[in-house]
Amino acid sequence: MNKLRSVLFPFLFFFLILAFSWDHSQAVSARAASAPAILKPTPNQEEAARYIAQYLLQNHYRKVPVNDSLAQQIFNRYLDNLDNNRSYFTAPEVEKLRQEIGVHLDDDFVSGNPTRGFAIYNLFLKRAREKMAYMKSTLETAKFDFSTPETLELERSKTAPWPADQTELHDLWRKELKYQYLSVKYSGEKGKNIKTELLKSFNNRLKIFNQQKPEDAFQAYMLAVTSSFDPHTDYFSPDEFENFQIDMSRSLEGIGAKLQMENEYTVVNEIIPGGPAFKSNHLKKGDKIVGVGQGDKGEIIDVTGWRINDVVKKIRGPKGTVVRLKVLPASQAGKGPARIIRLVRATVDLQEQAAQKKIIYENGHKIGVIVLPSFYLDFEGERQQKQNYTSTTKDVTKIINELKRENVEGIIVDLRENGGGSLEEAVNVTGLFTGKGPVVQVSNALGGKMVLKDENYPMLYSGPLVVLVNRYSASASEIFAAAIQDYGRGLVVGDRTFGKGTVQSIVNIQRPFSMFMKQSDLGQLKLTIAKFYRISGGSTQHIGVLPDIVLPSLIDPEVVGEDTYTSSLPWTTVSRTPYVPSGTVSREEIASLKKEFAQQSSKDKHYQSYLADLATLNRIRQRKSVSLQEKSFEAENKSLKVIQDRWGDANIDTGKKKKTDFILQEAASVLDDLVALKSRPAIPAAAPAPRPAVRQVVPVR
C-alpha cells in the first residue's frame, strides 16, 4: 500500500468528506445544512486505541496477521455495523471509502490512530441526517398506495448490494417509510396517530444524530476493530464499564437483563436468572428493544438509535415500579408486529437463580426435573470458607437426594436459557452424574492445554437421565451437556446449543504512572484468551452440542448462536483425554429411542400441529423480503401472532390461563421411553403404550 498517502491522509480527510458528491433535492439539503461540527478523537481515545492494539496482538487467543485482509475486515465490519441495511451509503461512495480509507485501516490499527475511523463515522452522520430529513419531508406530503404488490428487503447486508445511486437510495427510503407506516398501524397500540408517531420517531432520531459525541464514534470504530478478532472481544469506555460492573454485581434495581448495541438497536444480550425479565419469560436473548414507557400509561418513547447508556437509564428505576418495553422478538427474524412487555422492576432474587425441582407424571412413571437457570457460586463465601455459601453443586446435591427419596424413575436436567456461569460449578455438577473424572479441556493462546476434573464429588445419581437444552444454552451449560454425552451417561434432548466455547478476561487498560492522569480513564478490554474442548477432543465452539433427539424450538437459529457471528472462532479439535465412558446409554439404544420417538410423535396430533406452525414460522423467517401490500402484510402479522400466542412463552401466566411447557413434556416422553427401554426383558417386548393426551405437572416447593 502507498505509505506516503498513509502519512498525508490525516491532513486531507476532512476535505475528502466534503468532496463526496451528493446530488440532493433543495428541500432535503436545506434541512441538513445546519449539521453539527465534525467529530475528532480525543487524546485519551488516541492513547486507548494504541493500548487496545497492543493487547489484541499480544494476548488474544486468535493470532491475527496485520495485513490488507485485516484492513478490509475492519472496514467491512464497520460499514455493516453503521449501515446494516445498506440504506445510508451508495455503492460509489462505499468504493471510494474503501480505496481512500479502508486500505489504511491495518496501519491505523497498529499505530492506534482512529482518525480515519472518525472520518467514516462523520460521513455516516451526514447521510443519516439527510435520510431523516427526507423521511420527514416525504411523510408530510406522501399519499401511499398500499394496494400495490411491492416488497422491501430486510437484513439487506446479507441479500442486497448497496444502492447504485441517489435515485435507487431514495426509492429504498420510500419503501422503508411505507414499511414503518404499516408497522405502526398493526403494532396493536390503539389510539395512535400514525403520522404523528412516525414524525416523533424521526425528530428523535435526528436529535440523536445531532448530539453525537467523540465517544460515540470511538465506540463504534473500536467495536469494528475488536470484533474482527472475535465477537466476544469488546472495548468498554469508563462509563460503559461502570454499567458492566453493575450488571455483573446484579445489585441495581431494574429488569435483570444485559443489553448491547447492534447497529441502531438495543439488543438483549442476556437474561439474568432471578430478575423480572427471567420470571416473566417474555423477554428473550436477541430481542430488539425499540421503545420504553414508564408505568402502565406513560408514553412509549422510541429508543432506536439511542446510546446504550441512555436506554439503560430509561429502563432502570425504583423497585416496584412498572416499565413497558416495545420489543421486536428475535423469533420473528425482524418481521411482524412489535410486542409490548410489561415488567415490574425489582432487584435480582438470588433464590430465583437457585436450582429448582418439579415432578412430572409421564405414562405412569414419576420423573424428577432439575431446573438450572445458571451455574452460580458465591466466590467470596467459598474463599472465606463460610458454611452456608451459595453453590449450584450444593443445591443440586440436595435436590437429587430429595428426588431419590421420592423414588423418581428418571431425572431431567433442564438447561434451557442457561447461559453459563461458574466453570468450577459446571465441572462439579457433572461429577454428580458421571463420577470423578475429566469434564472439560481448556486450551490457552500459547497452545497449552489443561484438563479440568471433578475430584471432589462422587456419582450421586446413576439412573436414567435426560439433559434438556436449547439455542440459548451456552458456555458452562454446553460443557455439562457435552460431558454427559461423551460419557454415554444420558440423552441430550432439544435444540443445538449456542456454541460459545471461548473464555474471556477483563483487562484494565493502563498507562505508565502519571501524576496528572488516572489509570482508569482509558477504559477496559474484554479479551478472549482460551477455548473449551470436550474430553472426546472436539470443541463446543461454533457448532455447540448436537442433541441426540431433536426437539425444535421457536428460537430462530439464523439469529441466535455463535455461528451467526462472522468473526467467531472456528470449530477445531485437540487430542482426546483419557476417560472411561459409563455405558449407561449405548449408541444402539439411542438409535432405538430416536426411532421410537419418531414413530410416536408422528401420531401425536399436538406435536404435529406444533411442527406445522414452526414450518410456517420458518417460511416467513426465510423470506428475504416483506410485503408492502397491506392485505399481505396484515395476514403475515396475524400468522405470526397466532403462532406466538399458541406456543410462545411456555409455562407462564398470560392472565387467562397457564400454558403447558410443551417442550418439557416432550422431553419427559423421551425419558419415559428410556425408562421403559431399560426395564425391558432381553426378548422383544410389546410395542409401547401410546402416550396419554393429558399429562400432569406438579411443582414441588
TrEMBL record:
One of its GO terms (biological process) is proteolysis. Keywords: Hydrolase, Protease, Serine protease. SMART domains: PDZ, TSPc. The keyword Transmembrane helix does not apply. InterPro entries: ClpP/crotonase-like_dom_sf, PDZ, PDZ_sf, Peptidase_S41A, Tail-specific_protease, Tail_Prtase_C, TSP_N. CDD domains: cpPDZ_CPP-like, Peptidase_S41_CPP. Coiled coil: none annotated. GO terms for cellular component: outer membrane-bounded periplasmic space. Residues 245-322 form the PDZ domain. GO terms for molecular function: endopeptidase activity; serine-type peptidase activity. It comes from the Bacteria. PROSITE patterns: PDZ. Pfam families: DUF3340, PDZ, Peptidase_S41, TSP_NTD. The keyword Hydrolase applies. SUPFAM superfamilies: ClpP/crotonase (SSF52096), PDZ domain-like (SSF50156). PANTHER family: CARBOXYL-TERMINAL-PROCESSING PEPTIDASE 3, CHLOROPLASTIC, TAIL-SPECIFIC PROTEASE. Belongs to the peptidase S41A family. This is Tail-specific protease. It comes from Chlorobaculum thiosulfatiphilum (Chlorobium limicola f.sp. thiosulfatophilum).
